[in-house]
Amino acid sequence: MLSQIKTAFTRSQSTILQDAAGAVSLVVMLVVALHLPSGF
Fold first, then answer.
1. pTM
2. CA 26 → CA 3, 10, 23, 32, distances in Å?
3. φ, ψ dihedrals at 36, nearest 5°
4. Can you tell me the distance from the alpha carbon of 4 to that of 29, in angstroms, rounded to the nearest whole number?
5. Does this UniProt record's set of keywords contain Transmembrane helix (predicted)?
6. Residues near 9 by Cβ (< 8 Å), separated by ≥ 6?
7. Could you give the 3-state DSSP secondary structure of residue 38?
8. Rounded to the nearest 5 degrees, what angle is found at the Cα of 23, between the Cα atoms of 10 and 13?
9. pLDDT for the residue 38
10. Where are the alpha helices (DSSP H) in the chain?
């Protein structure tokens, strides 16, 4: 099982940074959306 995880990691190593950026942007949008009502 560990070898499968390593293989999947090496195959998708080029897109991990893009996935992390997408996840961070989703969290930022959620935080902004939750704070919007308090501004009005």
1. 0.64
2. 30, 25, 5, 10
3. -60, -45
4. 33
5. yes
6. 16
7. helix
8. 10
9. 81
10. 2-11, 13-35
